[in-house]
Write a structure and sequence with these properties.
This protein folds into three domains: 99 residues, no CATH class; 115 residues, Nucleotidyltransferase, domain 5 (2-Layer Sandwich); 168 residues, Nucleotidyltransferase, domain 5, CATH 3.30.420. The protein is α/β, with parallel strands linked by helices. The chain has 15 helices and 15 strands. The longest helix has 21 residues. Strands 7-6-5-8-11 form a five-stranded mixed β-sheet. Strands 2-1-3-4 form a four-stranded mixed β-sheet.
Length: 466
């Protein structure tokens, strides 16, 4: 299909990944070909999530009788995949082509290629996942919400950032950090959720020992949380399903009880990253992208609020290379987790001629590569240049779904010189390929201290005091 549509080669090639095929270039080539044809047909995609909230995306496709109509299927399927992980949703409605509607329904069926995505979304929203096809005129209308988040810094607060390879905690007194600590842990491999409870409590107690009292606790964590209940989170991937429902779902409610019922809020780590950026920049329309053990995304809208979207960018496709790495969890190729995380660094290390110690943890392997970077090792530099290329093309793709003025890039992978290289290369991509975006989107890296504990500090601002 790429051949027929004249897919452009990237003008800025990742030095360690010559076969990278940015999805944003395919999409632009597709739309250019559709609009160049004699006719085009409108197509809409709606996704309904909790409380009837619905997001809608509108595009155009080849008419069903066109010889290029088969190209519609891959284009729309990747869009549905993206929109589900950006917005979330248990119900997808395809407005327009019935052929496309049937294809999406088959792909997202229990036996389809995207069965993981369908099952995941059904579990998040506790409803059977469904796909419907309707006439374009009958597409549901959008219904969005804008929710104030954080920015409460009065009193004595604890902010906890639960990463998959390290945990950070900060003690905040009237907006000033009086203590911060970072410790390595390994939550994904643990089968007993008592491990998670004990580790989190130990971190909270360490922060509490540096304040006269604790008024509130804010938690930034990878995963999906609704009303402070854990719905899905990679932190607990090792916990058997029966134990998950009994011990993990209400884990943070149990922690709040252990602290006497004080205000406690748990928010997706990507949204906390975006909040940290918005607070630091004193502005709105901030997309936060955290490169850690996985990839996290978050968004602060034009009102300075969050949207209730999932923003799970780790599952969003960024590369259409048929030989792109496969995400072991979802079984899909070319998704963000292998491009914007410490796993991306490890994957690219072999292409850079860097031999890693297999006995080391992923965090230790990343640290080794960062040490090589600080010593001027050329292979290490190419790793971060490659990630920067990925970032530039992916920001252009994300801009189709988010109204963005600022992109905040942070997380363990951005520590040291590597973060500056990632940003510089991403800016080069935007200036070379997408000058219209380069003129309105600014990329930011927090300073080194904020880069490592910034989310814990922003997390502390989440709960409002009673």
């Amino acid at each position: 299909m790429s051949h027929h549509l004249g897919l452009a080669e990237p003008k800025v090639k990742p030095p360690l990944d010559k076969d990278f095929q940015p999805i944003v270039l395919r999409d632009r080539a597709f739309l250019h070909a559709v609009r160049r044809a004699d006719k085009e047909e409108p197509l809409g995609i709606a996704a309904e999530r909790n409380n009837g909230l619905t997001s809608v995306f509108r595009t155009v496709v080849f008419p069903e009788r066109s010889e290029m109509a088969s190209a519609n299927l891959s284009y729309v399927e990747r869009f549905v995949k993206t929109l589900l992980w950006v917005w979330g949703g248990w119900r997808v409605v395809i407005g327009g082509s019935k052929t496309i509607g049937r294809h999406i329904k088959e792909e997202y069926s229990p036996r389809g290629k995207r069965a993981f995505d369908a099952e995941f979304m059904g579990g998040v929203y506790e409803k059977p996942f469904t796909v419907e096809a309707v006439d374009y005129a009958d597409l549901p209308q959008p219904q969005e919400e804008s929710i104030p988040l954080g920015r409460h810094l009065e009193g004595c607060r604890i902010g906890f950032d639960a990463g998959a390879s390290d945990r950070k905690v900060a003690a905040i007194v009237d907006g000033e950090a009086v203590f911060s600590e970072e410790a390595v842990w390994n939550p994904k491999a643990q089968k007993d959720p008592q491990y998670h409870f004990d580790e989190i409590m130990a971190a909270l107690r360490a922060a509490a020992s540096h304040m006269p009292r604790v008024d509130a606790i804010g938690v930034s964590a990878a995963g999906i949380y609704i009303n402070n209940r854990v719905r899905v989170a990679s932190l607990f991937r090792g916990v058997p399903r029966e134990l998950f429902e009994k011990r993990v779902t209400n884990l943070f409610l149990d922690i709040r009880k252990a602290w006497g019922g004080i205000p406690l809020e748990v928010v997706h780590d990507g949204d906390v990253a975006a909040l940290a950026g918005a607070m630091g920049l004193n502005d709105t329309n901030v997309l936060g992208v955290a490169l850690g053990s996985s990839q996290a995304g978050g968004y602060i809208d034009g009102k300075g609020n969050i949207t209730g979207w999932l923003n799970e960018l780790a599952f969003v496709p960024v590369d259409l290379n048929p030989h792109a790495p496969v995400d072991e969890w979802s079984g899909d190729r070319g998704t963000g987790v292998h491009y914007f995380s410490q796993e991306a660094v490890i994957r690219l290390a072999s292409a850079a001629g860097i031999v890693l110690d297999e006995k080391q943890t992923s965090a230790e392997k990343l640290k080794h590569v960062q040490e090589l970077m600080s010593q001027g090792q050329e292979g290490a530099r190419k790793i971060f240049e490659t990630i920067g290329c990925y970032m530039g093309y992916s920001i252009a793709y994300y801009a189709d779904f988010y109204d963005v003025k600022h992109v905040l890039i942070l997380g363990r992978v951005t520590s040291g010189e590597g973060g500056d290289i990632i940003r510089e290369k991403a800016e080069e991509v935007l200036q070379t390929e997408f000058p219209e975006l380069a003129g309105r989107i600014r990329l930011h890296l927090p300073d080194e201290s904020s880069r490592r504990v910034g989310q814990a500090i922003a997390a502390a601002s989440l709960p409002a005091l009673r």
